[in-house]
């Protein structure tokens, strides 16, 4: 008999779910807005061929598009959040699919806008931007204008819009297969209780004290992935091919350059990250050796790298306590920040808290200009890292809250490069708070262990993922076949490099490259690594100075500037390896501290 079961969505208490009424009170209200969008978007055709007539006409078109975008954001958020809560809900899936289909038509209808703006001659365009009627649009228009070399003709843009859903269908296939269709069975935990193994509970099993339980969970989990490995490989290959297609179609030198272009991030920053991390792998190997000694393991495997090394400190943190810890740790950011977040996580029901059947795995923050910045969690009381996940997603949500309060809609959307700074900044403050209040040496060792694992997972691991993405896209661009063997071969070499010669790598671990959702949003994961590097620098600045003004201004800046410039103004220069190296040095110091305490 399974003592701990995963509830159905209908069995989850309302207080533990997000309140979507600020979006729509009922599904019927959503339907009404959907029908309205369906009947109004085609009016954009009235502007076709006229955007170069005058600043007033261009401004009118931009405002019309903005109005629709605000409504699309609301429709999309509601539909997506319901599906995230239960991916087996047929009505919700149909609602999302209908919207996706309509948005393809909307994209097609608006596909002429960018090419027409790009077609305005340079001198005339500069004259347009000096007209007061376009004063609110100067920043976004200059960002659009730099895309001129990568914007196609109106007809070609229409074809790109028409093909977008088909070319990105592999992401939905991956999500449905891994979150709904795949079944991992159940097994006994270290207390002998039979528990269901799921995408979410897998992390809990890997933190069990009994190495036999960790090993069994690992092999049982990856057995299911092995049985679907060819499908997963084909899906990932399609995703990579789509990335390369879009890059070539838009005249970018590579898929990586295409992905970095929108943020104006030089490829050198990406490459410097990888080379700097690779030059500091010795500290990581030293940590693995310490972990192996402390846990008294004959050999160390990947499934041994998540269990806390301080065994007598069990994690049992209820939701309310986790919220309180997060809020207290964020007091350096001031009363407005803390009070706003406290309301959102408590009475405001921003967060969908716990796992249920069909719920999307992992966690995310999803806010728009007019809605609460919602958070999805799959919180587990016995997974200490979930407290970090909560403050991480809260960082995203508060970034959205501050940005939309200070920026126009067209400038509030910050890029992911900056988003990962705000989220990991919160994690750094949480660690500093916990270390400051840890008087007991064992508790301090536990928190040091947690910070080391956080840095390992965010900086080292995500850089390995970034290198994998660089290699597989380069393989596709050079004409290599992206087969299962090619994926696992590249990944196996990276595992050997990043885990070191004394680490035991199970054959199934090669399949890990087929289960990472972020690989379907290519060249995203490196931003976790650059983000934590910038976050460490900014958190150090706030703690040392006692002044959060510069950081809060960073949050308010939204997407009004490109990320490298935004961070430079906040006091961090990502064009040099210095922030990454400083964070790697922190990792090394923490390993030395932990060795002194328990090694």
Shape: globular
Query: How would you name the CATH homologous superfamily of one domain?
Result: Oligopeptidase f, N-terminal domain
SSE string: HHHHHHHHEEHHHHHHHHEEEHHHHHHHHH
Q: Order of strands in the sheet with the most strands?
A: 3-5-4
Q: Can you name the CATH architecture of one domain? A: Up-down Bundle
Secondary-structure map with pairings?
Layout lengths: L26 H14 L14 H31 L4 H20 L3 H7 L2 H8 L8 H8 L8 H14 L1 H13 L4 E3 L5 E3 L4 H5 L5 H17 L1 H21 L5 H7 L5 H12 L2 H14 L24 H11 L5 H11 L5 E2 L11 E3 L7 E3 L8 H22 L2 H4 L3 H21 L4 H37 L6 H16 L26 H20 L3 H8 L6 H8 L7 H21 L1
Parallel strand pairs: 3-5
Antiparallel strand pairs: 1-2, 4-5
Helix pairs in contact: 1-2, 2-3, 3-7, 8-11, 11-12, 11-20, 13-20, 14-25, 15-16, 15-17, 15-19, 17-19, 19-20, 19-22, 20-21, 20-22, 20-25, 22-25, 23-24
